[in-house]
Amino acid sequence: MAHGLYYNVKAYLGRDFTREEVRLVQEVNTSNHSIAEWNISDEKAEPTLEQLNALESQANTLESNNQIITNRKAEYPSIEECVHAILDDDLVALQEKRTIVKNKYPKG
Which of 26, 47, 83, 96 could form a disulfide with 51, with the two C-beta atoms 3.0–4.6 Å apart? Predict the structure, then answer.
Protein backbone atom coordinates (compact mmCIF):
# COMPACT_ATOMS: atom_id res chain seq x y z
CA MET A 1 0.00 0.00 0.00
CA ALA A 2 2.25 2.70 -1.33
CA HIS A 3 -0.11 5.58 -0.56
CA GLY A 4 -0.62 4.59 3.03
CA LEU A 5 -3.16 2.71 5.02
CA TYR A 6 -5.26 5.80 5.72
CA TYR A 7 -6.95 5.83 2.30
CA ASN A 8 -7.59 2.08 2.35
CA VAL A 9 -9.37 2.40 5.70
CA LYS A 10 -11.29 5.43 4.40
CA ALA A 11 -12.40 3.39 1.36
CA TYR A 12 -13.39 0.48 3.63
CA LEU A 13 -15.52 2.71 5.85
CA GLY A 14 -16.90 4.80 3.01
CA ARG A 15 -16.14 7.95 5.01
CA ASP A 16 -13.39 9.80 6.81
CA PHE A 17 -12.59 8.84 10.38
CA THR A 18 -11.07 10.38 13.49
CA ARG A 19 -7.99 9.29 15.42
CA GLU A 20 -10.27 8.28 18.26
CA GLU A 21 -12.12 5.90 15.95
CA VAL A 22 -9.12 4.35 14.20
CA ARG A 23 -5.52 4.79 15.27
CA LEU A 24 -2.91 3.99 12.64
CA VAL A 25 0.76 3.56 13.52
CA GLN A 26 3.97 3.17 11.58
CA GLU A 27 5.78 -0.04 12.29
CA VAL A 28 9.25 0.38 13.81
CA ASN A 29 12.11 0.67 11.29
CA THR A 30 9.79 0.26 8.29
CA SER A 31 7.55 2.36 6.10
CA ASN A 32 4.65 -0.01 6.83
CA HIS A 33 1.59 1.09 8.77
CA SER A 34 -0.93 -0.93 10.72
CA ILE A 35 -4.12 -0.47 12.69
CA ALA A 36 -3.28 -0.06 16.36
CA GLU A 37 -6.83 0.57 17.57
CA TRP A 38 -10.24 0.02 15.98
CA ASN A 39 -12.93 1.75 18.04
CA ILE A 40 -15.87 1.54 15.64
CA SER A 41 -16.65 -2.17 15.67
CA ASP A 42 -20.32 -1.32 16.20
CA GLU A 43 -20.29 0.22 12.70
CA LYS A 44 -17.95 -2.17 10.89
CA ALA A 45 -15.65 -4.93 12.03
CA GLU A 46 -11.93 -4.29 11.83
CA PRO A 47 -10.86 -5.16 8.28
CA THR A 48 -8.31 -7.77 7.39
CA LEU A 49 -5.26 -6.89 5.30
CA GLU A 50 -6.86 -8.77 2.40
CA GLN A 51 -10.02 -6.65 2.65
CA LEU A 52 -7.95 -3.47 2.65
CA ASN A 53 -5.80 -4.62 -0.27
CA ALA A 54 -8.96 -5.30 -2.28
CA LEU A 55 -9.79 -1.59 -1.97
CA GLU A 56 -6.47 -0.43 -3.44
CA SER A 57 -8.06 1.09 -6.55
CA GLN A 58 -10.62 3.05 -4.53
CA ALA A 59 -7.91 4.15 -2.11
CA ASN A 60 -5.75 5.40 -4.99
CA THR A 61 -8.70 7.42 -6.32
CA LEU A 62 -9.36 8.93 -2.88
CA GLU A 63 -5.71 9.90 -2.51
CA SER A 64 -5.58 11.36 -6.01
CA ASN A 65 -8.74 13.40 -5.44
CA ASN A 66 -7.35 14.64 -2.14
CA GLN A 67 -4.23 15.92 -3.91
CA ILE A 68 -6.37 17.60 -6.57
CA ILE A 69 -8.40 19.38 -3.89
CA THR A 70 -5.20 20.50 -2.15
CA ASN A 71 -3.81 21.85 -5.43
CA ARG A 72 -7.06 23.65 -6.23
CA LYS A 73 -7.25 25.28 -2.80
CA ALA A 74 -3.72 26.61 -3.21
CA GLU A 75 -4.63 28.32 -6.49
CA TYR A 76 -8.24 29.36 -5.99
CA PRO A 77 -8.93 33.05 -5.39
CA SER A 78 -8.59 33.99 -1.73
CA ILE A 79 -11.58 34.78 0.48
CA GLU A 80 -10.61 38.44 0.21
CA GLU A 81 -10.67 38.25 -3.60
CA CYS A 82 -14.07 36.56 -3.46
CA VAL A 83 -15.50 39.26 -1.19
CA HIS A 84 -14.16 41.99 -3.48
CA ALA A 85 -15.63 40.24 -6.52
CA ILE A 86 -19.02 40.07 -4.82
CA LEU A 87 -18.91 43.69 -3.70
CA ASP A 88 -17.58 44.92 -7.05
CA ASP A 89 -20.14 42.85 -8.99
CA ASP A 90 -17.35 40.95 -10.73
CA LEU A 91 -18.57 37.39 -10.23
CA VAL A 92 -18.02 36.44 -13.87
CA ALA A 93 -14.27 37.10 -13.59
CA LEU A 94 -14.15 35.23 -10.29
CA GLN A 95 -15.85 32.19 -11.79
CA GLU A 96 -13.47 32.32 -14.76
CA LYS A 97 -10.50 32.14 -12.36
CA ARG A 98 -12.06 29.17 -10.57
CA THR A 99 -12.78 27.40 -13.87
CA ILE A 100 -9.15 27.79 -14.97
CA VAL A 101 -8.00 26.12 -11.74
CA LYS A 102 -10.60 23.34 -12.03
CA ASN A 103 -9.52 22.64 -15.60
CA LYS A 104 -5.87 22.60 -14.53
CA TYR A 105 -6.62 20.01 -11.81
CA PRO A 106 -9.55 17.86 -13.03
CA LYS A 107 -10.95 15.21 -10.72
CA GLY A 108 -10.45 11.62 -11.78
Answer: 47
